[in-house]
Amino acid sequence: MSSTTQLASAWKENRSFYALFAVYLGALFAGESGMLASVCAHYESGWLTWQTGWAAMGCLAALAALVGLWSRSVRKIETIFLLVAPPLLIGFALFMMPFAVPDEFTHINRVFDNRSGVCPLTVPEQLRDAEAWIGPYSGLQACFDIPFDYSLTRETENCAAAYSSINYLLPSLATLIGVPLGINAYVLIFAARLINAMLYLFAGYWMLCKMPFGKKLAFVFLLNPMLLQQEASCSADALCNIAALCFIVQVLAMRFGQCDPLPKREWVVLLGLALLVALCKYAYLPLICAAVILYPRIESRKIRWVLPFAAALFMVLAAVFVYMIGYSAMLERVLSSFSFDAFFGSLGATIAQEGGTILWQFAGGNLGWPYMNGADATVTVRVPFAWVVYLAVLLVAFLASFGERKDLFRPWERVVLIALGAIESLLLFLALWEALAGPTAVTWMQGRYFIPPVFLVLCALVLREKTPAARLPNLFFGIAMVLVNVFSLAYVIRFFM
Known about the structure:
The chain has helices at residues 3-13, 15-45, 50-70, 77-95, 104-112, 137-144, 172-178, 185-210, 215-222, 225-231, 237-255, 264-280, 301-337, 340-362, 386-400, 411-432, 451-461, 474-496; strands at residues 121-124, 153-156. By secondary structure, the protein is an all-alpha fold. The chain starts with a helix and ends with a helix. A two-stranded antiparallel ribbon has the order 1-2. The protein has 18 helices and two strands. The longest helix is centred in the middle third of the chain and has 37 residues, at 301-337. Among the domains are: 14-72; 104-191, no CATH class. It comes from Raoultibacter timonensis. Keywords: Membrane, Transmembrane, Transmembrane helix. The chain crosses the membrane at residues 47-68, 80-101, 185-208, 268-294, 306-330, 385-403, 415-433, 445-463, 475-496. This is DUF2142 domain-containing protein.
């Protein structure tokens, strides 16, 4: 039975579970939105308000639903994910101040005017523009109180024009419905965030169900505080990360699938995810080459003969397409001025000078505007120590995933996947490298860019031999990630109080 069929069978057998889970989601939203309303209102009205009562009732209902779900969820790590991830995703979506997520103001503009390749965009006049920080939650309350007149518009050049409209298709549904109704634009921003957060929740569950090994590793990786922050925002990276991570998981699931030959629907899913990666973020295109490990599983000789040529042609056409849509100037500058000494000198300087910051950002040590090269901003939320704990838990989960299968990667497959992760990381560095004249450090790299290639490399490094960490129960990782993220969210709330 294929993993897709197993998912369909599980759905039929657990309808009551999913019905109660829907209640759990609704109660969490009610409770946490009530908490945000209570925090915003307390500046003028104190804490004994109807908003606080609303929050308490929602949280109690969520707790009751959690109790009902608990005994049926602690056996499998994917169902633990369904319990652990929702309050964290909703928390990041609601309590992280709009515009404080890196570059989110640009993506918010696209949610209100979803046109790729177009600049400037037309957005509501009363909506704040780039780097117009809101500040504490009292300022957010003032934003909620604005009566929006959507007939008043302005143009903005913060347009994220390079991203496809596909990236904003789902979150922009909030504005498509809400703007004609005259709903406050900041309420719509939170609605768009929650749409992305729920999309990630179900994508994460799908990935954990399909992972043929390394589920503990994937569980901890998918609950990375930085990743949760990005997924619970209006950023295009929300769908970019989902597309890239789901593609990697689909490749792994097909590589170790028990059916021979592989069902056609699995190839269709793989192709669909590959196209989604291509549409979402051109920089992640090399990750599609991970599918090369599936080549021996192709039954048809004709397809095996044609495929390398088709893949080469696709890569050439992709490069031409990227070149023609506006990246020509950057590519020409790189090709005309590139030198190995300058490039690797800059790479070495960046690792030496910014490596710690990049690692810190990757693991969720910074949950606000990027803190780079000493630069500060009024919305830079720094979370101390939690990132160290997260990396420790990730290492333990990585070791706990050893020995889950005896038929893991062949040596050439490991080499290919690790090389792809390294090449992808180098290309991400090259895309941001402007120090062509000399070996100076790039100080605007952000750790979140490396989430998909790091996941690919970690999966490729899982070994056959068990470690003592394999004895740790799934619940240990669930509790650990709740603590890491609750601590991180507490610092976010404290910062904006």
